[in-house]
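Q: I have 208 residues here and want to know how they pack in 3D. Can you give me a structure?
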Amino acid sequence: MHIAIAGNIGAGKTTLTTLLAKHFKWQPHFEDADDNPYLNDFYDDMQRWSFNLQVYFLNSRFGQVQKIRNTGKTVIQDRTIYEDAYIFAPNLHAMGLMTTRDFTNYMELFKLMESFISPPDLLIYLRGSVPTLVKQIQARGRDYESTINIDYLSRLNERYEAFITTYEQVHKDAKLIIIDVDHNDFNTDAEDLGIIINKINAEINGLF
């Protein structure tokens, strides 16, 4: 089974992936942000490095999905390939940080990859307001995230909401859980984490 966690920067995807992998004994697949050779350059000069960064993420995520489907195990993934293609790349293009030529090339590559994969069996979306995201970004203190501005996070949030609205319509057999991280502190509150675990059990096992 393929479980995936989606959400904006700072929503808590990596933390929840870790907690759920430990609880359910699932195999975690993390976004390799710290090993990404373009990330620091991107945040210093988004226009120059946007295409390089997004192609790197696309390739990495496609490889992850291929591995997940071949493991025969239940795997939980930190971020999905759909977020790269329907949120981050279009946002960069709309902001004038990726040329139309590069964006068209990118989307053609994604469409080809998409034809070889299936959506996750369960998608968990972490919804958070910009103040919550900023607070959590600051708390983890990653140098390359220090230059992220509120406008950028707001634009991403708008695209996440649009993406989630259409997700179930496009992938009719896929299951979706939405967690409001403004009111669920799963990192420090065991009861809040338990709420998420119960929702997952209900979706997976059909318990209502």
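Q: Anything worth noting?
A: Residues 55 and 188 are 35 Å apart (CA to CA). The beta strands are 2-7, 27-29, 75-78, 122-127, 175-180.
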